[in-house]
């Protein structure tokens, strides 16, 4: 009876690993494996069909020599910055206004957030109709008697990208509002009470105490919005189709066009690698700060 | 009412109008005939409730070459969404259960790898996946799309369940182990019965994501197997004859109805999914 | 035959050893308490007895079976958790019968067990409720009921009372004691509360830094602590430790004691051979609050000295008076009628017969 029983390696001990194995394998192959595969394509001479040779940075050179790519990159920058900033500002202010113990808060919140449940294709289709100069907003104002009113951004090469911003903000700002509202509700009421006892006015309390405390919320909103911006594809396809011409192309539509309709797999994969770089440039500092926080 | 309150309600109402207007315009337009559209503005109310455009969008509108309306594509989307949502949610629940209650050496690393997977732009995997679906012989089919949605949904569902189960006390699992329950028994009898909220979050999130997906749909499906978002885009951009805005709008509403319905019925869980996805880790 | 034998049990996480060779044996029907500050390894040890954590080295024997590497379910144990760990989706009666259900006991027999346990714990009216609808004390009872239903050879309790409020804790404490006396169960009970340890245990293992510091009955540990840590840990308010100079006198030893500027010589009339080598050096006098009291006639062996009162804390039955001895704050337990106020001098009586001495360096008891 004193003989120590040896630890037995039973099926049961492997069970948890077996259960997560499919996901683990899928992650390795379909995310990391495919990323490497895609990287290889971007260094190959692939056109219509993938070829597994090595041409170094040729495809990247072709990409960078392509005007359309730079238009797409510039559009992403314009769209990204405006989209993110506007969403954050609108979201924050709506959240602050909603946080003033208003009536029917639930209903209002529902209204602000429902666009998030829609497909970007639906959003694009709707706004395409509203912004259409012949029958949309422009027509409405003219019928109302403002004869000289002009709003033709959708068909104006210089302005079309801003219509994408409008539709994007319409769809996503409610989400920032929801995040900010959750953040505001998380503020310790005793801190607000203490500040009021100290004689601070409500605007001052928001400006100096509550909003600075929302830092982490802004940060996550920023990450998600940036992510939406870089991946934005559906909205542009549905709203402008990348046009007029290729005036509203973004990297995602550029990549799709080259890889799947123009038979330029090499350039397309190089473009997607550039998108990956952009995301990495954002999430690495994010992960770094998260991990550092956890360590502390 | 003080000036402050008036200002607050004023701003909130204006914003509500901004969000509601496009939906209102869509509904109004879908109920008009082309004559009314040409003569009025987009906010002129229809003279009568006219569902012809809806009927056309559902059963006879042209989406590219075929002219059978959206109905077939609507059911395609249903066929894709149901299995993809169920499988990715079940696997996500099991993953979350293992990652919190049966940790092993390397399980945190695994979770980290998976988390990064939620952040990559899908453009990076489009080409290899297209080739792989070709090898597997399921390119352009419903099965191909189901597989793609399951794989790239797993990271999110796992994240949901992992973050939910992490707050379930481990003592509960220990108590069940002492009571003699094993891995599956604990999952089935203890963990699953308390998972309803996160199951709802995961199902709604996956449902919305997959129903609304366009990128995978447009790249990996063709012809009769396309999901509704792709069909809607084709319908809107099919340029044969007169532009029928009323049909476009009816089609857009049809495509949006399932997710809108879910949002209105279970909005609370939808918001939770959104914020859970935002506050990772 | 022992009910439980823990033989040279060690636990390490990587390079860190959290348990350093534990040896404990208890008889059937004994109530063993593992007590110690947080991080001492007591909960880890309990989890290892339960089979929830692996044993790095050594053996655990329950009855006549070595269970070191067995699954929890094969060890014939039941456990009551700190958070109660009631299954939230099940009713009270389903919670109690879950283990029986897993063991495939027929439903009618399960019902008999549930009814017996419910009667024993007076929770019959709660059987169809969910844990959410129970108060803290009721949850506690259900958690115990779940363990009792298993009728195991050993019960394990992991700080079961620490989530209750003070009053309920005292009530449940005496109920557990009563249950133990009535059912003659073998119990291993983890707590950080030394009062629980004193009141409940047949035997106590005081743990610190992954080692058992002392193993014995509550009274042994209270009266004869092995070292300064145990002396200070057991008892509330805790023992006073006063460093003082030891010198030889005609009848034994003398301690130089200073308070309020006055030096008194305190005579030690115990026979402690070990003290001889400390003459002329410093020792730590360990004296419990109840050994310094107001002056009364019935203790001829006691010494009396004047002290400066710093703080007065009435508790009802006694008043705690803090004085300063050799520069150290010292708590005395005084009868409430012996009124004094802060800043005033007061004559206090020292019962040195039960005082203990520690080496100031090693903190070990001088015997």
Biggest sheet statistics of chain C:
6 strands, mixed
Please identify, by name, the CATH architecture of the largest domain in chain C.
Answer: 3-Layer(aba) Sandwich
Query: What structural class do you assign from the helix and strand content of chain A?
Result: mainly alpha
Helix run count of chain C: 8
Find the biggest chain interface.
A-B, 95 and 93 residues
The strand order across the widest sheet of chain C is 6-7-8-3-9-10
Shape of chain C: elongated
Instruction: Give the ordered list of helices and strands of chain A.
Output: HHHHHHHHHHHHH
- Runs of chain C in which pLDDT lies below 50 for 5 or more consecutive residues are none
Q: Which class of the largest domain in chain C in CATH terms?
A: Alpha Beta
Task: State which percent range the strand residues of chain A make up.
Answer: under 5%
Mean pLDDT score of chain A, rounded? 84
State the helical fraction of chain C: 10-25%
User: Can you count the beta strands of chain A?
Assistant: 0
CATH superfamily of chain A: MetI-like
Structural class of chain C: alpha+beta
Q: So what's the oligomer here? A: heterotrimer
Number of strands of chain C: 20
Span between termini of chain A: 48 Å
| CATH fold topology of chain A | MetI-like fold
Membrane topology (chain A): Multi-pass membrane protein
Keywords (chain A): Cell membrane, Membrane, Transmembrane, Transmembrane helix, Transport
Pfam families (chain A): BPD_transp_1
Subcellular location (chain A): Cell membrane
């Amino acid at each position: 009876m004193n003989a120590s029983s040896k630890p037995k390696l039973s099926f049961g001990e492997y069970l948890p690993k077996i259960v997560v194995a499919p996901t683990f394998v899928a992650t390795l192959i379909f995310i990391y494996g495919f990323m490497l595969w895609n990287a290889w394509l971007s260094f190959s001479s692939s056109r219509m069909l993938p070829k597994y040779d090595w041409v170094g940075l040729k495809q990247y050179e072709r990409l960078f020599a392509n005007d359309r790519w730079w238009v797409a990159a510039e559009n992403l920058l314009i769209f990204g910055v405006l989209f993110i900033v506007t969403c954050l500002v609108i979201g924050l202010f709506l959240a602050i206004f909603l946080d003033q113990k208003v009536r029917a808060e639930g209903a209002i919140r529902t209204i602000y957030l429902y666009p998030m449940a829609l497909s970007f294709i639906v959003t694009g289709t709707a706004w395409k109709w509203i912004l259409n100069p012949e029958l949309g907003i422009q027509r409405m104002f003219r019928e109302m008697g403002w004869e000289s009113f002009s709003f033709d951004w959708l068909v104006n090469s210089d302005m079309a990208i801003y219509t994408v911003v409008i539709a994007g903000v319409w769809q996503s700002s409610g989400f920032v509002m929801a995040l900010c509202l959750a953040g505001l509700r998380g503020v310790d009421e005793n801190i607000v009470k203490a500040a009021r006892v100290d004689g601070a006015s409500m605007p001052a309390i928001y400006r100096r105490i509550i909003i600075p405390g929302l830092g982490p919320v802004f940060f996550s909103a920023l990450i998600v919005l940036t992510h939406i911006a870089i991946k934005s594809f559906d909205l542009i396809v549905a709203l402008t189709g990348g046009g007029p011409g290729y005036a509203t192309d973004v990297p995602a539509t550029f990549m799709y066009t080259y890889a799947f309709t123009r038979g330029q797999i090499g350039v397309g994969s190089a473009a997607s690698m550039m998108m990956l770089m952009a995301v990495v440039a954002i999430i690495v500092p994010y992960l770094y700060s998260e991990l550092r926080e956890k360590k502390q | 009412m003080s000036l402050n309150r008036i200002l607050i309600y004023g701003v909130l109402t204006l914003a509500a109008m901004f969000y509601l207007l496009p939906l209102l315009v869509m509904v109004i337009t879908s109920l008009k005939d082309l004559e009314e559209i040409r003569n009025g503005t987009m906010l002129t109310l229809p003279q009568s409730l006219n569902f012809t455009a809806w009927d056309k969008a559902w059963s006879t509108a042209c989406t590219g070459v075929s002219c059978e309306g959206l109905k077939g594509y609507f059911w395609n989307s249903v066929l894709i969404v149901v299995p993809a949502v169920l499988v990715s949610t079940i696997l996500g629940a099991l993953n979350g259960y293992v990652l919190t209650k049966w940790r092993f050496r390397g399980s945190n690393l695994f979770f980290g790898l998976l988390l990064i997977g939620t952040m990559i732009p899908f453009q990076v995997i489009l080409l290899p996946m297209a080739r792989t679906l070709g090898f597997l012989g399921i390119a352009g089919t419903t099965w191909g799309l189901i597989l793609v949605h399951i794989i790239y949904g797993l990271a999110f569902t796992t994240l949901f369940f992992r973050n939910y189960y992490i707050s379930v006390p481990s003592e509960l699992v220990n108590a069940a182990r002492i009571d003699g329950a094993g891995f599956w028994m604990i999952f089935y009898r203890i963990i699953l019965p308390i998972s309803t909220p996160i199951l709802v979050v995961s199902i709604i999130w996956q449902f919305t994501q997959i129903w609304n997906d366009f990128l995978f749909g447009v790249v990996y499906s063709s012809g009769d197997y396309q999901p509704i978002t792709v069909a809607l885009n084709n319908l809107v951009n099919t340029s044969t004859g007169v532009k029928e805005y009323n049909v476009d709008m009816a089609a857009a509403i049809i495509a949006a109805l399932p997710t809108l319905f879910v949002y209105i019925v279970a909005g609370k869980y939808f918001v939770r999914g959104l914020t859970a996805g935002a506050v990772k880790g | 035959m022992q009910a439980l034998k823990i033989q040279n049990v060690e636990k390490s996480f990587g390079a860190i050893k959290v348990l350093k060779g534990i040896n404990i044996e208890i008889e059937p029907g004994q109530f063993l308490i593992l007590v110690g500050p947080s991080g001492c390894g007591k909960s880890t040890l309990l989890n290892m007895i339960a089979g929830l954590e692996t044993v790095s080295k050594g053996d655990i024997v329950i009855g006549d079976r070595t269970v070191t590497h067995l699954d929890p379910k094969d060890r014939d144990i039941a456990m009551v958790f700190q958070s109660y760990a009631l299954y939230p989706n099940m009713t009270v009666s389903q919670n109690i019968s879950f283990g029986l259900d897993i063991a495939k006991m027929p439903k009618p027999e399960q019902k008999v067990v549930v009814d017996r346990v419910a009667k024993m714990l007076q929770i019959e009216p709660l059987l169809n409720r969910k844990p959410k609808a129970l108060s803290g004390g009721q949850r506690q009872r259900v958690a115990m009921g779940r363990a009792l239903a298993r009728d195991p050879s050993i019960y394990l309790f992991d700080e079961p009372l620490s989530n209750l409020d003070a009053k309920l804790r005292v009530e449940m404490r005496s109920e557990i004691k009563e249950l133990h006396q009535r059912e003659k169960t073998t119990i291993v009970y983890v707590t950080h509360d030394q009062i629980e340890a004193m009141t409940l245990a047949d035997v106590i293992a005081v743990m610190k830094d992954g080692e058992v510091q002392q193993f014995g009955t509550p009274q042994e540990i209270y009266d004869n602590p092995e070292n300064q840590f145990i002396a200070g840990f057991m008892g509330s308010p805790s023992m006073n430790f006063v460093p003082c100079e030891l010198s030889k006198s005609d009848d034994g030893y003398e301690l130089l004691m200073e308070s309020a500027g006055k030096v008194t010589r305190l005579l030690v009339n115990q026979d402690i051979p070990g003290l001889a080598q400390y003459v002329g050096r410093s020792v730590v006098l360990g004296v419990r609050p109840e050994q310094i009291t107001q002056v009364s006639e019935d203790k001829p062996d006691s010494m009396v000295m004047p002290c400066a009162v710093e703080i007065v804390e009435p508790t009802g039955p006694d008043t705690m008076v803090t004085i300063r001895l050799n520069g150290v704050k010292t708590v005395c337990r005084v009868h409430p009628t012996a009124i004094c106020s802060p800043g005033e001098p007061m004559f206090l009586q020292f019962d040195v017969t039960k005082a203990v001495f520690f080496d100031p360096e090693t903190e070990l008891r001088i015997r």
